């Protein structure tokens, strides 16, 4: 999604498993992008509005993140919300 060269990727279901995408198409994303997709977008939004990498890249909710990550050399980020 960020178009960076990274060593490791993780599999992202374009339609989340919880929304019926268990056997659907997947893409490989770097860990920071994968974590951020799930932080900024709900599974329902992913299933209904963002079922391709092109749509994810265009998502308004991800634009600030994408501008930032494209300049970074990080392989991992910790951006999970703290549980209360």
TrEMBL record:
Keywords: Endonuclease, Hydrolase, Nuclease. One of its GO terms (molecular function) is endonuclease activity. It comes from the Bacteria. This is Restriction endonuclease. It comes from Hymenobacter sedentarius.
